[in-house]
C-alpha cells in the first residue's frame, strides 16, 4: 500500500524566470482546455496528447515532459467537471487556468535537497532556488520516502511555495485477518464520533466551531450586501481565512482519530461514502450554509491518508439509513431519531444519535470482512421494515 504526503516548502528567491515558466504552463493548459471544450466531450489522455503535443512544443515552447503532463492534468479536470454535471451542479464549460500552479515531474523537471530545489525554467534551463525547509519536513528527504510529481504554487499572499509530494510503500493489512474495526460518523453537531468493535468511543464536539462559522456567515452576508470593491477584497480574505481554519480543525481531528485507532489496535476504519450528500439531503434554510460548506470530504480524506501512513485500512460503506437504524435490533425508522438522541421505537434502546450512527458504520465495515471471505462483495442493507 502506498502512503503519500505533501509538504509545503516556501521558495525564498522566486524570480522572473519562474514566473515566466508558470505563465507558459498556464498558456499550455488553456490551449489544451480549449481543444477539449471545442470537442464537446472528454478526450482520452493519450489521444489528446498526440493532438496537442506539437503545438505545445513548437508554438508555446514547453519542454517534452511538461507537454506530456498537461493533457493528463486537463483531462482530470474535465472528468471532475463531468461528475459535477451528473450531479446537476454545473454545465459543460471551458475550464480556465491561471499562472498560479505548475506540476513538475521528479528528475525530469525538478530535483530537490534539504536546502534548495532545482527547477527547469522556460528560458534559462535549470535554475536553483533556495527553500525554507522545516525540521519536521527533513524526515521525508530520507529513505523509505521517495519524491514524486510535485507542484510550484503561488499563494494568495504572493509568496511561492513548493508543494513536495513524497511516498513510501507500507505493508497493507489483509481485511480478512482484521479483528478490530472502527466506524467514524462525521457531522455538524459533533464533527466526528468514533466507535470500535469493543464499544470504545470518542466524541469530537462541533458546537464552538459551529458558532465561529456562524460568525463568518454573518460577516460574509454583511460584506456581500455592501458590494463595494473594498468589501469584495475583505470577503476574499475572509473566505481564505475560514478555509484555513477548517483545514486546521480537520487536520487536528483526523490526527486524534488515528491516534485513538492505534491505541485501540484498530485494523480497519469505516467511513460513509458521502458522495453527493449535499444533493440528497434537505436541511432548513438557517442550516443550509453550515451544511453546504461543511468540509466533510476533506476530513474523511485526512483520516484516510493518515490511516494509510500507519498501515490502517480504510473502507467506505453505504450510508443509507445509518442514522435511522437501531444498532441493537436493526429496526429502521425515521422516527427513531429525534435531534441529538436516538430512541428505537421497536426495542426501546436509547443513546446519542451520532454514536448510534458510528456503531452502524462499524457494523457495516465489519460485515465487509465476512462478505470478502464468503463472496467477495459488499453486504447489502435490507429495508423491509422501513417506515
From TrEMBL:
<keyword id="KW-0233">DNA recombination</keyword>
<dbReference type="InterPro" id="IPR001959">
    <property type="entry name" value="Transposase"/>
</dbReference>
<dbReference type="GO" id="GO:0003677">
    <property type="term" value="F:DNA binding"/>
</dbReference>
<comment type="similarity">
    <text>In the C-terminal section; belongs to the transposase 35 family.</text>
</comment>
<dbReference type="Pfam" id="PF01385">
    <property type="entry name" value="OrfB_IS605"/>
</dbReference>
<dbReference type="Pfam" id="PF07282">
    <property type="entry name" value="Cas12f1-like_TNB"/>
</dbReference>
<protein>
    <submittedName>
        <fullName>Mobile element protein</fullName>
    </submittedName>
</protein>
<comment type="similarity">
    <text>In the N-terminal section; belongs to the transposase 2 family.</text>
</comment>
<dbReference type="InterPro" id="IPR051399">
    <property type="entry name" value="RNA-guided_DNA_endo/Transpos"/>
</dbReference>
<dbReference type="GO" id="GO:0032196">
    <property type="term" value="P:transposition"/>
</dbReference>
<feature type="domain" description="Cas12f1-like TNB">
    <location>
        <begin position="296"/>
        <end position="361"/>
    </location>
</feature>
<keyword id="KW-0815">Transposition</keyword>
<dbReference type="GO" id="GO:0006310">
    <property type="term" value="P:DNA recombination"/>
</dbReference>
<dbReference type="InterPro" id="IPR010095">
    <property type="entry name" value="Cas12f1-like_TNB"/>
</dbReference>
<feature type="domain" description="Probable transposase IS891/IS1136/IS1341">
    <location>
        <begin position="170"/>
        <end position="277"/>
    </location>
</feature>
<keyword id="KW-0238">DNA-binding</keyword>
Amino acid at each position: 500500500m502506498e502512503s503519500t504526503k505533501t509538504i509545503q516548502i516556501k521558495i525564498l528567491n522566486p524570480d522572473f524566470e519562474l514566473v515566466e515558466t508558470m505563465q507558459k504552463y498556464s498558456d499550455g493548459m488553456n490551449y489544451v482546455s480549449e481543444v477539449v471544450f471545442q470537442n464537446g466531450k472528454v478526450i482520452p489522455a493519450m489521444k489528446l496528447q498526440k493532438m496537442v503535443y506539437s503545438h505545445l512544443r513548437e508554438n508555446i515552447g514547453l519542454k517534452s515532459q511538461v507537454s506530456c503532463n498537461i493533457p493528463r492534468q486537463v483531462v482530470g479536470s474535465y472528468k471532475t467537471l463531468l461528475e459535477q454535471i451528473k450531479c446537476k451542479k454545473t454545465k459543460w464549460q471551458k475550464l480556465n487556468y491561471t499562472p498560479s500552479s505548475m506540476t513538475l515531474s521528479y528528475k525530469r523537471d525538478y530535483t530537490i535537497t534539504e536546502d534548495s530545489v532545482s527547477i527547469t525554467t522556460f528560458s534559462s534551463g535549470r535554475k536553483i532556488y533556495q527553500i525554507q525547509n522545516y525540521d519536521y519536513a527533513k524526515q521525508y528527504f530520507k529513505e523509505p520516502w521517495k519524491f514524486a510529481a510535485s507542484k510550484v504554487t503561488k499563494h494568495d499572499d504572493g509568496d511561492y511555495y513548493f508543494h513536495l509530494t513524497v511516498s513510501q510503500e507500507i505493508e497493507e493489512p489483509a481485511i480478512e485477518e482484521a479483528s478490530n474495526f472502527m466506524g467514524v460518523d462525521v457531522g455538524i453537531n459533533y464533527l466526528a464520533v468514533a466507535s470500535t468493535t469493543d464499544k470504545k468511543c470518542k466524541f469530537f464536539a462541533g458546537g464552538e466551531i459551529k458558532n465561529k462559522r456562524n460568525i463568518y456567515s454573518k460577516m460574509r452576508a454583511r460584506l456581500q450586501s455592501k458590494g463595494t470593491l473594498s468589501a469584495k477584497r475583505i470577503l476574499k480574505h475572509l473566505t481564505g481565512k475560514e478555509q484555513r481554519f477548517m483545514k486546521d480543525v480537520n487536520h487536528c481531528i483526523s490526527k486524534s482519530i488515528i491516534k485513538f485507532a492505534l491505541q485501540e489496535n484498530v485494523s480497519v476504519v469505516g467511513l460513509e461514502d458521502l458522495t453527493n450528500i449535499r444533493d440528497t439531503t434537505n436541511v432548513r434554510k438557517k442550516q443550509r450554509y453550515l451544511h453546504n460548506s461543511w468540509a466533510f470530504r476533506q476530513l474523511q480524506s485526512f483520516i484516510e491518508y493518515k490511516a494509510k501512513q500507519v498501515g490502517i485500512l480504510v473502507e467506505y460503506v453505504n450510508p443509507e439509513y445509518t442514522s435511522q437504524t437501531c444498532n441493537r435490533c436493526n429496526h429502521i425508522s425515521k422516527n427513531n431519531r429525534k435531534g441529538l438522541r436516538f430512541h428505537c421505537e421497536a426495542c426501546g434502546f436509547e443513546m446519542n444519535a451520532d454514536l448510534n450512527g458510528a456503531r452502524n458504520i462499524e457494523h457495516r465495515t465489519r460485515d465487509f470482512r465476512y462478505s470478502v471471505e464468503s463472496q467477495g462483495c459488499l453486504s447489502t442493507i435490507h429495508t423491509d421494515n422501513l417506515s
